[in-house]
């Protein structure tokens, strides 16, 4: 698997595996994780909110593959924000994963703009705790998720360490150019959550026409588009053939014209989760 280099030199596999709400029932989720590891995924995206860190830790252990070969991301949730709570949440995450470090730790959502009133302080206090976890060697890289430009600007005013990653909703039909441009200028790698708009863009007529043109699937068009934008997609699938297909995206390249065509698609598949209104 190809890797991207974060601003601190850490290498991250450029396709990750999403673990939020798999389409399989809970008890089958361990099988999904084992299948994903067998299919070659080493980069896994979890969060304390997903309630599956324990299963992910078990799957890594059961695989027999050394821990250092994995890239594990977790996140502190909105109701766990603040300096002390973040430290407690992180300790609980490590314990559930049964690991002594995570590769990437993120603030899952910024506080609502203006609600609570001290949203700026809550974001920066949370970040301060995360910076310390990084300096203590408990996390190899740190970042944020769902931060738009004004959230990032606020953090950048106070931070000692610039976030290395911003994980945002990003797929054909929802491309967040302003935030991506801001991140690019500051060396912040963008990760793309819901690369298929939770499946909503896979039947889009324009993407289907591109799939026919390049002799691939629409999911491969979505992933290739995200990679060519310089971002890291986090596809999720509970089907082994799809897990494999979602990594098989290096045999073709979208033309500049088709990239432009996708970027100018009408909004489609937006989750409805706007970070200031969630
Ligand atoms: N930071 C955040 O706030 C945030 C928010 C949302 C998500 N995320 C992360 O992003 C990850 C991915 O997003 P997501 O889970 O919302 O959805 P997604 O990856 O955009 O879409 C998943 C859907 O696409 C289908 N699919 C996958 N591969 C396919 C293929 N090759 N062909 C046809 N259908 C395919 C899956 O069905 P099958 O299972 O049947 O294949 C599933 O229904 C999450 O799991 C999570 O880790 C982060």
SSE order and pairing:
Layout: E1 3-5, E2 11-13, E3 17-18, H1 29-38, E4 43-45, H2 53-63, E5 71-76, H3 83-97, E6 102-107, H4 119-135, E7 139-145, H5 149-158, E8 165-169, H6 177-185, E9 189-193, H7 205-214, H8 218-228, E10 232-233, H9 240-245, H10 256-263
Parallel strand pairs: 3-4, 4-5, 5-6, 6-7, 7-8, 8-9, 9-10
Antiparallel strand pairs: 1-2
Helix pairs in contact: 1-2, 2-3, 3-4, 4-5, 7-8
The chain binds NADP nicotinamide-adenine-dinucleotide phosphate.
| Named CATH architecture | Alpha-Beta Barrel
Report the structural category: alpha/beta
Instruction: Tell me the total number of β-strands.
Output: 10
CATH homologous superfamily (4th level) name: NADP-dependent oxidoreductase domain
Figure out the total of helices: 10
CATH class division = Alpha Beta
What proportion of the residues form beta strands (DSSP E)?
15-25%
**Roughly how many Å apart are the termini?**
34 Å
- The tally of domains stands at 1
Largest sheet: 8 strands, parallel
Strand order across the largest sheet = 3-4-5-6-7-8-9-10
Mean pLDDT: 95
Element-by-element helix/strand order? EEEHEHEHEHEHEHEHHEHH
CATH topology: TIM Barrel
Shape: globular
Question: Rg to the nearest angstrom?
Answer: 18 Å
Query: Which regions have little confidence, pLDDT < 50, spanning 5+ residues?
Result: none
Ligand set: NADP nicotinamide-adenine-dinucleotide phosphate
Can you tell me about this structure?
This protein is an alpha/beta fold and 278 residues long. A hairpin with a 5-residue loop joins strand 1 (3-5) and strand 2 (11-13). The two termini are 34 Å apart. Helix 1 crosses helix 2 (53-63), helix 3 packs across helix 4 and helix 7 packs across helix 8. The mean pLDDT is 95. The longest helix has 17 residues, at 119-135. The chain has a single domain (3-263), classed as NADP-dependent oxidoreductase domain (TIM Barrel). It has helices at 29-38, 53-63, 83-97, 119-135, 149-158, 177-185, 205-214, 218-228, 240-245, 256-263; strands spanning 3-5, 11-13, 17-18, 43-45, 71-76, 102-107, 139-145, 165-169, 189-193, 232-233. The strands form 2 sheets. An 8-stranded parallel β-sheet has the order 3-4-5-6-7-8-9-10. Bound molecules: NADP nicotinamide-adenine-dinucleotide phosphate. NADP nicotinamide-adenine-dinucleotide phosphate is lined by residues 18-20, 23, 45, 108, 145-146, 167, 193-199, 202, 217, 219, 234-239, 242, 245-246.
